[in-house]
């Protein structure tokens, strides 16, 4: 019995050796492997609610605040569902966005305009522009499903006393706003700590920092702060996640067009 | 670099072999190690099945430990390992993607303090582990939240009050054909009270609207936009009271939308509506959404008075409104609508049976002078809404077939909307809109072309502009609408409409001839109340 196990393990080692022979393929595999490990920090959360504060800072340091409530639901074998309801500024209070992310194919998105009582289906390609005047696009804010990128391991890296894997991520969606992203993943817990976004002209447009990770349910890591710096406009947007809770009892029924209408 | 990773793996695998041996020999010696947790179960049998599954797939030595969490015993399936952390990646890649690391250092404290637990991985009656998250049993929020009790749920205030006050000026280029003023001012106040009841499952809203106008007394208004109660139970939503609801997909003309009466004096484009008393049941399922409406009573359309602008030559005599129905404005109308979203398509079918929101006009003599009285027929209207998304473009169609006003007729609006994101390498988005409007009752099909420029700035600035062109009559209407937020409290919006009556000899209609001199600019300042 023991001998069989040993043989199987040896087989694994041999197989790894063979894989290593083809270096570039291996970098791709390795990249995917790291991405998957990182992704599993986010998956398995079930559902969550959070108040999201968006601080928009222009190049002179003037700050504008936006507040919204975000509800998320994890969907087995597909992208997650999200519902964002705006609370301020006051003129957009009650405006809400419902999104169904899909691992394959385009995402679905609806916008609710409370003044007109109208639910409007939105072409989901329009996700690359600035979201509400911030430095985030809807693409930056939506779920970054592994299946939507090709991954390549670049190298190990270290800064600020932490060890990182550096992987390159190329969006497979032709409508993505980026040509590539460099992602620094902390080795200890596979947490994404920094992303460099390269625009369509392969210009390093934005840098995204993930700060103050907290652990929930003993295994789900979430940053409590995400900062996006636009190197072109010199503007910065900071997202603060407040009162993040899991297992709030949300179900599919809370992510329908009817729930979008009553979301305020 | 790859070599180093290879080494790590080899080392991990070696350690795995070692660990298996060590654990097999001395089961108690792992106490100082981290562990990989594969799942926790309330049902011990499920834990045993999970353990078997892990052993078969991973060649790891797996144990089951009872853990007391919140006065319940959970059976935790886990494997202690000297290099659990290194192994975790591999384990996750082997299909146990929800496994997690239980640190030796945090084992005692974390369990006790956070009272944290995994979800049960399969229902108690089925011993087969399920991977579908949707099938997982949900736990109460209180059991699993890492936050202290009382902050577990995001709870907004149960009662909210807000609203807005707006001041509006309309400047007309010329004095009206009936000598109406060039300058009109009005103030609108619409507060809103919102109460959320019973754990967010039902709510109450009260939203009146008051408007006063300096020139046209017909623009003075007291309306209840909303006074309604909404209750959600399972997949059924019950909405009772005065409400507004919108049907449709197009932008320039709304063919299908029929629940609410148009407040024509508020804005010439007909986008503003009056509250409608109703009982509305809404059912949601995999098959889409079905809405049933009983519309209790009827609201007359508003029309400008003698001193008002943007009207026909003869003012509408609201006091002489006539109805086909003997119940007049007390008739109960019915409506039903089904809508469903598919991957790239949105489809809706609807039927309305009741008093038409759109009146015909009867010539009457009132105190010796000619006047027009609105006549509201009882109609049957079937509607279709279709929206199809191709890449960044939305293709739209709205069509109706209506009987009850003379011969049965059809009307349709079809077009597309497309947005160019980040034009000229800026943050600006430019949206394009084109819609063609057909109506059996009219000789030609006006075409609307519009653009929406979104600045994506801090102030949500945008400019919507467009042309409505009637080929047959040569009439051209040009409109510009712009808005911008000011500070955190306010918003400024500007609307401008320019009429070009075209060749009147070629069938320009009387209405548009009369409003040829009603070109205007409307400036509105809105102050938002509430926190």
From TrEMBL, chain A:
Protein name as it appears in the record: Uncharacterized protein TP-0789 domain-containing protein
Gene3D superfamilies for this protein: Lipoprotein localisation LolA/LolB/LppX
Record organism: marine metagenome
Ranges for domain Uncharacterized protein TP-0789: 79-262
């Amino acid at each position: 019995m023991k001998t069989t196990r040993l043989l199987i393990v040896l087989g694994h080692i041999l197989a790894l050796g063979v894989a290593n022979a083809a270096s570039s393929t291996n970098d791709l595999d390795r990249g995917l492997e790291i991405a998957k490990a990182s992704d599993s920090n986010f998956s398995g959360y079930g559902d969550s609610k959070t108040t999201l504060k968006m601080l928009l800072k222009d190049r002179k340091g003037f700050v504008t605040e936006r507040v919204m409530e975000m509800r998320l639901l994890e969907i087995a074998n597909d992208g997650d569902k999200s519902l964002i309801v705006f609370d301020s500024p006051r003129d957009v209070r009650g405006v809400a966005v419902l999104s169904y992310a899909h691992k394959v194919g385009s995402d679905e998105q609806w916008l609710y305009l409370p003044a007109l009582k109208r639910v409007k289906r939105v072409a989901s390609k329009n996700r690359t522009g600035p979201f509400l005047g911030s430095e985030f696009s809807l693409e930056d804010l939506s779920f970054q499903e592994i299946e939507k990128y090709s991954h390549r391991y670049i190298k190990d890296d270290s800064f600020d006393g932490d060890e990182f894997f550096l992987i390159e991520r190329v969006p497979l969606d032709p409508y993505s706003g980026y040509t590539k992203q460099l992602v620094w993943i902390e080795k200890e817990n596979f947490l994404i700590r920094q992303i460099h976004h390269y625009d369509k002209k392969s210009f390093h447009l934005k840098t995204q920092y993930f700060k103050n990770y907290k652990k929930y349910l003993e295994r789900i890591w979430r940053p409590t702060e995400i900062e996006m710096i636009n190197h072109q406009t010199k503007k910065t947007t900071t997202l603060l996640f407040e009162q993040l809770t899991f297992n709030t009892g949300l179900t599919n029924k809370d992510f329908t067009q009817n729930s979008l209408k009553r979301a305020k | 670099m790859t070599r180093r990773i290879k080494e790590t793996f080899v080392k991990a695998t070696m350690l795995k072999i070692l660990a298996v041996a060590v654990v097999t020999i001395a089961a108690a010696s792992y106490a100082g190690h981290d562990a990989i947790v594969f799942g926790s179960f309330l049902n011990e049998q499920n834990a045993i099945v999970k353990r078997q599954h892990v052993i078969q797939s991973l060649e790891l030595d797996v144990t089951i430990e009872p853990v007391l969490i919140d006065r319940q015993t959970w059976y935790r399936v886990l494997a202690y390992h000297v290099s659990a952390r290194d192994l975790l990646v591999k384990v996750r890649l082997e299909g146990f993607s929800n496994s997690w690391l239980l640190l030796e250092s945090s084992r005692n404290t974390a369990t006790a303090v956070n009272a944290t637990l995994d979800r049960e991985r399969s229902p108690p009656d089925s011993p087969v582990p399920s991977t579908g998250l949707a099938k997982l049993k949900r736990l109460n929020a209180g059991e699993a939240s890492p936050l202290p009790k009382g902050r577990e749920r995001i709870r907004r205030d149960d009662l909210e009050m807000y609203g807005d006050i707006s001041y509006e000026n309309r400047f007309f280029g010329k004095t009206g054909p009936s000598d109406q003023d060039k300058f009109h001012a009005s103030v609108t106040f619409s507060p809103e009270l919102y109460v959320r009841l019973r754990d967010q499952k039902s709510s109450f809203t009260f939203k009146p609207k008051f408007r006063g106008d300096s020139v046209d007394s017909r623009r003075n208004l007291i309306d209840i936009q909303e006074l309604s109660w909404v209750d959600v139970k399972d997949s059924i939503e019950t909405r009772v009271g005065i409400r507004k609801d919108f049907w449709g997909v197009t932008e320039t003309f709304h063919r299908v939308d029929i629940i609410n009466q148009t407040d024509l004096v508020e804005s010439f484009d007909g986008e503003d509506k009056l509250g409608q008393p109703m009982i509305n049941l809404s059912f949601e399922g995999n098959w889409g959404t079905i809405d049933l409406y009983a519309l209790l009573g009827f609201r007359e359309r508003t029309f400008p008075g003698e001193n008002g602008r943007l009207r026909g030559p003869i003012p509408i005599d609201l006091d002489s409104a006539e109805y086909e129905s003997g119940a007049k404005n007390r008739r109960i109308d019915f409506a039903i609508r089904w809508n469903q979203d598919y991957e790239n398509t949105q489809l809706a079918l609807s039927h309305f049976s009741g008093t038409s929101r759109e009146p015909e006009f009867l010539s009457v003599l009132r105190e010796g002078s000619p006047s027009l009285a609105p006549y509201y027929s009882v109609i049957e209207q079937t509607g279709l809404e279709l929206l199809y998304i191709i890449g960044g473009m939305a293709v739209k169609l709205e069509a109706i077939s209506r009987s009850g006003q003379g011969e049965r007729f059809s009307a349709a609006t079809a077009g597309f909307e497309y947005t160019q994101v980040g034009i000229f390498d800026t943050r600006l988005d430019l949206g394009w809109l084109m819609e063609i409007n057909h109506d059996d009752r009219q000789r030609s099909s006006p075409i609307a072309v519009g653009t929406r420029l979104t600045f994506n700035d801090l102030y949500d600035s945008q400019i919507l502009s467009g042309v409505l062109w009637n080929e047959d009559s040569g009439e051209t209407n040009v409109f510009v609408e712009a808005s911008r937020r000011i500070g955190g409290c306010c918003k400024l919006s500007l609307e401008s409409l320019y009429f070009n009556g075209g060749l009147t000899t070629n069938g320009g209609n009387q209405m548009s001839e009369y409003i040829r001199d009603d070109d205007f600019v409307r400036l509105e300042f809105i102050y938002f109340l509430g926190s």
